[in-house]
TrEMBL record:
<protein>
    <submittedName>
        <fullName>2H phosphoesterase superfamily protein Bsu1186 (YjcG)</fullName>
    </submittedName>
</protein>
<dbReference type="InterPro" id="IPR009097">
    <property type="entry name" value="Cyclic_Pdiesterase"/>
</dbReference>
<dbReference type="Pfam" id="PF13563">
    <property type="entry name" value="2_5_RNA_ligase2"/>
</dbReference>
<feature type="compositionally biased region" description="Low complexity">
    <location>
        <begin position="1"/>
        <end position="12"/>
    </location>
</feature>
<dbReference type="InterPro" id="IPR050580">
    <property type="entry name" value="2H_phosphoesterase_YjcG-like"/>
</dbReference>
<feature type="region of interest" description="Disordered">
    <location>
        <begin position="1"/>
        <end position="22"/>
    </location>
</feature>
Amino acid sequence: MSAPATPGAAAGAREHPPGRIGVAIPVPAPLGELLQRRRAESGDPLAWTVPTHVTLVPPVAVADEHLPQVHEHLAGVASCSAPFAIRLQGTGTFRPVSPVVFVRLAAGAAEVSRIEERVRAGVLAGERRFPFHPHVTLAQDVGDDALDRAVAALAHFEADFAVDRFLLYRHDADGVWRPETEYALG
């Protein structure tokens, strides 16, 4: 069975299967590592494969021949987006819709939403599985008890960090998110 055709493909042309990418704002060290350890403590199987981040575009299949357009689009979005600050504060959950616990964005959510809207308006436009809600995942796809513990563990958590870039990540066959390209804001 051949790979599904990608936009712009000639009829009947053989193509390589698309790679998977994601776009996200990284949470810098040491804060990112602290939250990644907390995610691992919840039993989340993705804790060590996904760097701590705020998602702009979740994993999506993109054929290699379309990556130059993606890079050009992301560079354009970054160049017209000013640096800003994020304040993380407390926890929230998407239950019962989705088994996810997250750290809330008490400041910076509006800026993240504006960037996400611009990123998703171009070559990366597509259907969203859920409405966009900026957050940092703390636990997902674990049992209710583990989700409850994750909510309680960081209920009073607060931290700030500066955002001056976002990253395109490549999702390899091993499931690990690896940073591929950095886009500086401003």
